[in-house]
Known about the structure:
Radius of gyration of chain A: 20 Å
Largest interface: A-B, 61 and 61 residues
CATH superfamily of the largest domain in chain A: PurM-like, N-terminal domain
Distance between the termini of chain A: 7 Å
Oligomer: homodimer
Strand order of the largest sheet of chain A: 8-10-7-11-9-12-13
Order of helices and strands of chain A: HHEEEHEHEEEHHHHEHEHEEEE
CATH class of the largest domain in chain A: Alpha Beta
Amino acid sequence: xxxxxxxxxxxxxxxxxxxxxxxxxxxxxxxxxxxxxxxxxxxxxxxxxxxxxxxxxxxxxxxxxxxxxxxxxxxxxxxxxxxxxxxxxxxxxxxxxxxxxxxxxxxxxxxxxxxxxxxxxxxxxxxxxxxxxxxxxxxxxxxxxxxxxxxxxxxxxxxxxxxxxxxxxxxxxxxxxxxxxxxxxxxxxxxxxxxxxxxxxxxxxxxxxxxxxxxxxxxxxxxxxxxxxxxxxxxxxxxxxxxxxxxxxxxxxxxxxxxxxxxxxxxxxxxxxxxxxxxxxxxxxxxxxxxxxxxxxxxxxxxxxxxxxxxxxxxxxxxxxxxxxxx
Amino acid sequence: xxxxxxxxxxxxxxxxxxxxxxxxxxxxxxxxxxxxxxxxxxxxxxxxxxxxxxxxxxxxxxxxxxxxxxxxxxxxxxxxxxxxxxxxxxxxxxxxxxxxxxxxxxxxxxxxxxxxxxxxxxxxxxxxxxxxxxxxxxxxxxxxxxxxxxxxxxxxxxxxxxxxxxxxxxxxxxxxxxxxxxxxxxxxxxxxxxxxxxxxxxxxxxxxxxxxxxxxxxxxxxxxxxxxxxxxxxxxxxxxxxxxxxxxxxxxxxxxxxxxxxxxxxxxxxxxxxxxxxxxxxxxxxxxxxxxxxxxxxxxxxxxxxxxxxxxxxxxxxxxxxxxxxx
Lengths: 327, 327
């Protein structure tokens, strides 16, 4: 069965030991500009200049959330950071710090942890400069699991909640719509071997087209820009535009009518596909949309619709029938 | 094989669904006094009155960290909270908020999650009143995993690091020494069936003596008290007094000499046993020790010793040879 390359037998987590593994990982992790006390004590101490902080947590689990045959360790670190950073951005905040707990099989190569650390570092540098890793935990588990908690700073602004949209508000998005789902569809179709198992070589050959799924790059700084431009509501698109826009609409007591002409070449995938981690926001009708937001709809009295016709969302659970043992 | 009682087939996580499960769990979780925006949006917003916060994360994994035949769901939530709260306390801070990510098998009973939530609630109420759960994440995994991130407030004080102990400082502890290890030894000896598998009924019959291992109650408020009393260094005892005191000593550039007469009835277990989550602190020679700290040794020039004789610590990894499939 395709899997990770086998490590040298003497370079696994259990052979190297927790202390030495941490010694190899910590230097790879980015420091946070907000850090007063960093890794190495019982806890970190982080600045909160305006007397508040934003906090969110999200776990990625081998099996339900990713395939080791498709995602590189770097991808896993990158995506774990990106998906949490976007939740901070969706509050209108700037990400400042991460803490990261990882559980991995004892026979994992240390390079798995090093790759995850590099992915965390590169995602912070690219998407949220100044944000870094201030603490963490390393455990042994039969199931590779990455739990990230992200923290952010509102810089004196009020948080942008899901509940502030009003009828007539412009609905806008920053980032991709449906690209992560399209890339996953491609992987399920073309990156499996004849027996249906995920294949790392086939996935590698598709790499130029699978980035939106394996290492999404949501526009994190757009969250702050939306808040400054007066966004009335905002959230992170993790389960697809249809489901997540329904959450924003329900919290706000409004509906949303999307314009299919503004949803790209494949409006159906734009509506149904999850994991883009783009930002969906609403703005007053007369607001100038900050870059890179683009208008895709309008707040109406009730319901989720496309071109005025009610849209019935389906759940986003692409790996549901795949077991972790399949790669 | 002994395991959790089988749930009604229609009351598992996969049958009930994530939204409905969260709807049953959230009302059980304690609100945090520090919470400005709680669960239900992309992230929480928490007060940080002194412009800083303390943050730590720790993961509990079925297999390496607990047996489902021995720990109740309530125990798991309690211990996940207690072990993280003690890391906040060890900085001299008061715990204010938790975020909790849980991954559980799809066929787990919803009562597993409800019990964990109740344990989180009861531990916060007993150990750190005012601290609550401000956010979380629920995932499916083959391996039950609980990742808690705890946050705390320094209330204007400087954090108490591991590195501030000086030669001549009094070494003191607040909380149990070796009781968690003694309770685990009892479970390994008397709570396994003839085939060596952990047995829930036998564990239940020992309950009056296993609390220190399954649901430890470290003196969380003692962390703040130590800081106010001028503690020069402090840390949480998770891997045993010998190993953890070595960490404090190395960080401070000192040694510690323990007095065996002050280590209780079983000094060897007090030195070697992990998971008490008690607080080890050092104080200036003339400081009045705040309750419930008691003197157990003194900072010397180098090394870890008992009654002046060098002590060689052994690692704390009691479940090392036990697979998660054993219960």
